[in-house]
Amino acid sequence: MHTLRKNRPLRRIVLAGAATVSGMVLLLSLKPHTAPGVAGLASPVPAGAPSGTAGSSGSTPTGTRTLTGDSVQTRWGPVQVRITLKDGRLTDVTAVSYPQENPRDQQINSYAVPQLTREALTAQSADIDTVSGATYTSDGYRRSLQSALDAASRS
Predict the structure, then answer these.
(1) Rounded to the nearest 5 degrees, what angle is found at the Cα of 97, between the Cα atoms of 95 and 103?
(2) 134-150: string of b/e by CB count within 10 Å (b at 16+)?
(3) Range of the domain at 108
(4) Which residue, 125, 54, 113, 117, is CA-closest to 89?
(5) What gap in Å lies between CA 121 and CA 96, rounded to an integer?
(6) Considering the domain boundaries, does residue 115 fall inside one?
(7) Cut 0.70: pTM above it
(8) What is the per-residue pLDDT across 92-108, written as a single tens digit (0 to 9) for each?
């Protein structure tokens, strides 16, 4: 018995509808690539922002400040980052601690941490992609980075 027989139009309609819905779900689950600078959702102080913005103490922060984010406990160990802001712009991100107890952790994080740092500096926020193969480190890095950026916007 063939599923698409002509004397069963309702079955054909259901199958066509299911295929259409499945295709739409697959298309909508794709994450589009965003251009650098567009993803600055959590930027502490945008470049050129007027003084007196929310969270500032009367003026736009100037000079160089260094803040350390919260230590985030992950499945494989703690992750913590330190950021440097110059005139409200993220200029450096350093991983203070990350899992490196065994050779596998060292191998994974030797490529993951520099990639996360590059993405954070490009995005100027904690809105960065997860590094494939380093999901826990990426999540901890992102959360610690966001806590440092939050602390910068409060001070």
Answers:
(1) 105
(2) bebbbebbbbbbbbbbb
(3) 64-154
(4) 125
(5) 16
(6) yes
(7) no
(8) 998 988 988 888 888 98
